[in-house]
From TrEMBL:
Cited SUPFAM superfamilies: tRNA-guanine transglycosylase
Record organism: Kosmotoga olearia (strain ATCC BAA-1733 / DSM 21960 / TBF 19.5.1)
UniProt function note: Catalyzes the base-exchange of a guanine (G) residue with the queuine precursor 7-aminomethyl-7-deazaguanine (PreQ1) at position 34 (anticodon wobble position) in tRNAs with GU(N) anticodons (tRNA-Asp, -Asn, -His and -Tyr). Catalysis occurs through a double-displacement mechanism. The nucleophile active site attacks the C1' of nucleotide 34 to detach the guanine base from the RNA, forming a covalent enzyme-RNA intermediate. The proton acceptor active site deprotonates the incoming PreQ1, allowing a nucleophilic attack on the C1' of the ribose to form the product.
Any one GO cellular component localisation term in the record: cytosol
Top-level taxonomy: Bacteria, Thermotogati, Thermotogota, Thermotogae, Kosmotogales
Annotated protein name in UniProt: Queuine tRNA-ribosyltransferase
Assembly mode: Homodimer. Within each dimer, one monomer is responsible for RNA recognition and catalysis, while the other monomer binds to the replacement base PreQ1.
NCBIfam families: Q_tRNA_tgt, tgt_general
Signal peptide span: none
Amino acid sequence: MVKFTVTKKDPVTSARTGKLETKHGVFETPVFMPVGTNATVKGLWQEQLKELGARIILGNAFHLYLKPGLEVIRSFGGLHSFMNWNNSILTDSGGFQVFSLKDKKVLDEGVLFKSPIDGSKIMMTPELSMEIQMTLGSDIAMAFDECVAPELDRTYAQESVERTTRWAEKCLAYHDRSQALFGIVQGAFYKDLREKSAREITAMDFDGFAVGGLSVGEPFEVTRDILEFTTKLLPEDKPRYLMGIGTPDMIIMAVENGIDMFDCVLPTRMGRHGTALTWSGKINLKAARHKFSKEPIDPECNCKVCRSYSKGYIYHLFSRDELLGKMMLSYHNVHFLLDFTDRLRNAIREERFLEFKELCTRKQLIKNDTGVNVSEG
């Protein structure tokens, strides 16, 4: 299904590089994966994603099940053909989206909820999640798990861990192994529950493991503490995935603790709202101070937006609510995070990880630890 090889370990931290081979190609880790929830990374053509160097993107089982539906995807021969993307795809099980719904009922067999499309009742089960993802034909599928809110108490968190384990077993029993399948470790912010979940999930025959239930509103230091604790419980010979992170400070922290894969909608979401990610921090291109600026978004960036267009022009596009401005910033932001991750990989290879981290701190890409994480997944 997938072949993962660790190629370099940082001598001081748990950061590492690797190669992950799927049916649709090989890519290096750590890797940032742009999110294409509805079979599209918002604002970008697939050709542009390839141009930017994206080797793997995400699709979402929940949303694609609702629209266009499995019948349509099946008629096209899978998601790769449907969206004309011949590189790798990872599909989210839909667990996060289901559990973000307000009107739902969690049962032992799955989650009952009303479709946000037409109001019809849907029972999302581990088996249905596997059926959806097998139909999509992604290279990597995710087990169906329960992602709990950070404020829920320990009693429910323990029940949820046990439920996630049962659902993981059902996913493995139903899945035909036509694609790789990753298990997800839960446990909220209780270390003993994280340890229990990791012990049970890693004992199963998954191809990789994800750390779930983080970056859902907790303080940064809590994320770091739980992640550092949890990743040490995961096998070293399989890929490790932290879902829903996409800021430089979160990426640095995750990689420092041994994470290989991460994703986020942040670059395109911020781009659509006029914010650019740069090597000097975030820039609001809607601000009037850029009206006469002939400078590029980021002098350190070599993407074609920065090579060809000024901040003044992009400010004008946003002031007139032109679609092109949103597309340009989405393109630039995806380029920034892919480039950031490329430089991070190179730093690990050359045993300069801590030096790279210090550089990011000086450039104020890494903030202090008082912030609160809000999921962008």
